[in-house]
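ARCHIVE CARD
CATEGORY: sequence design from structure
SOURCE FIELD: tokenized fold
FIELD CONTENT:
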């Protein structure tokens, strides 16, 4: 089971600890407001966006492969489907 702890840091940044089995990794995630505006997500809690972003990444790579510094605006370059997937993940159900 994967456990995530998300902690607000300075403005627009969150610390994330991910524990899988007996291994814990940490990363820092930047959430630029301009990206949330562009994605029409400015009304969402940025911590939710961070959680869904980490879940997206964990669906594609192990926690030990998470980069120490992640900015959600950079992920679109690595994963062309990221923005579409993120919108789907945060859409009301």
């Amino acid at each position: 089971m994967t456990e995530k702890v998300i902690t607000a840091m300075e403005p627009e940044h969150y610390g994330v600890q991910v524990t899988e089995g007996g291994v814990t990794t940490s990363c820092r995630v930047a959430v630029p407001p301009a990206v949330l505006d562009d994605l029409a997500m400015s009304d969402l809690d940025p911590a939710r966006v961070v959680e869904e972003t980490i879940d997206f990444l964990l669906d594609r790579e192990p926690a030990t492969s998470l980069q120490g510094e992640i900015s959600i605006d950079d992920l679109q370059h690595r994963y062309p489907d990221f923005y579409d997937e993120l919108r789907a993940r945060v859409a009301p159900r």
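CARD ANNOTATION: The chain is about 40% helix and 30% strand. The first strand starts at residue 2 and ends at 8.
SHELF: design records, drawer C
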